Amino acid sequence: MIKIEGVSFTYPDGHKAIDNVNIKIGSNETVGIVGANGAGKSTLLKLLTGIDFPEQGSLEVNGIKVRKDTLREVRKNVGIVFQNPDEQLFMTKVRDDIAFGPRNYGMGEAETQRRTEKALKALEIEHLGERAPHKLSGGEKRSVAIASVLSMEPSVLLLDEPSSFLDPKCRRNLIRILQELELTQIIATHDLDLVLDVCDRVVVLQRGSVFADGKPIEILSQGQLMSECGLETPLTLMSCPILENGCCRYAAEGSGNDERP
Ligand SMILES: Nc1ncnc2c1ncn2[C@@H]1O[C@H](COP(=O)(O)OP(=O)(O)O)[C@@H](O)[C@H]1O
Ligand SMILES: [Mg+2]
């Protein structure tokens, strides 16, 4: 469903951000894109939506080549949620932001309303419909931004650092919602524990190239590979000297042990 073939991209200032990347992603796969700062994660997502275009190679979504003349069709299929929700929300009411895409594509008022309600429900934010987006909390804004993309009913959802700036409860809620969505997802993130919870597959980028590609548990548990790419083994895969089986060893040992690290 998604084919990235021999793609290279250089920014106008001469910086090569993507270097001969090849990735194929199947329908309904959820793929995490990880890598150190500057590895090329956001650039790859931008190329997939035709915000930028590669100087070499090709990208294809559902059989549609990502090109200037196919952008309208591409954007019907691929929705992107930016790292900063403020870049995505600009209406005075949440409901209007979510309705914006379908309305802009001339889908008619009844269909626009149906999609808006469905997206509000999927993100469990029906209660925010009449609020002003710019007055919401970070977590609420993120949910509205995702809903504003889902209302286009894309077959592919791209998310750039979706858990950044979220508190633990909002992050957990987001993870549950992403797990429940039934569409292809590509998630660029530093949150390796989110990748373990949500993704079927992980692609590790290093300086614009694919360094590893496979099952999250198999890739993310390789300490050597992770440190070569400037990453760390996710917390859930590390044996913790203090927490054993989710309990504090020192508490479990009871009184008499005052030697806490
Ligand atoms: N607008 C830009 N102009 C020039 N270089 C850029 C621009 N945006 C990003 N880069 C560079 O491209 C590389 C990849 O950036 P990016 O895709 O944002 O990485 P990531 O999302 O993995 O942190 C980095 O070295 C970054 O400095
Ligand atoms: Mg980025």
Please provide a written account of the structure.
With 261 residues, the protein is an alpha/beta fold. The protein has one domain (2-252): P-loop containing nucleotide triphosphate hydrolases (Rossmann fold, 3-Layer(aba) Sandwich), CATH 3.40.50.300. Helix content is 34%, strand content 24%. Bound molecules: adenosine-5'-diphosphate (ADP) and magnesium ion. Magnesium ion binds next to helix 1.
Please render the helix and strand layout as text:
Elements: E1 2-10, E2 16-25, E3 30-34, H1 41-48, E4 56-61, E5 64-65, H2 71-77, E6 78-81, H3 94-104, H4 109-122, H5 138-150, E7 156-160, H6 168-180, E8 184-188, H7 192-198, E9 201-206, E10 209-214, H8 216-220, H9 223-228, E11 243-244, E12 247-248, H10 249-252
Parallel strand pairs: 3-8, 3-9, 6-7, 7-8
Antiparallel strand pairs: 1-2, 1-4, 4-5, 9-10, 11-12
Bound molecules: adenosine-5'-diphosphate and magnesium ion.
Adenosine-5'-diphosphate (ADP) binds next to helix 1.
Kindly, what is the distance between the CA atoms of the first and last residues, rounded to a whole number of angstroms? 51 Å
- SS element count, helices: 10
Provide mean pLDDT, rounded: 92
The outline comes out as globular
CATH architecture: 3-Layer(aba) Sandwich
CATH fold topology: Rossmann fold
Total domains? 1
Comma- or semicolon-separated keywords:
binds adenosine-5'-diphosphate; Rossmann fold; four-stranded antiparallel beta sheet; six-stranded mixed beta sheet; 261 residues; alpha/beta; 12 strands; globular; 10 helices; binds magnesium ion
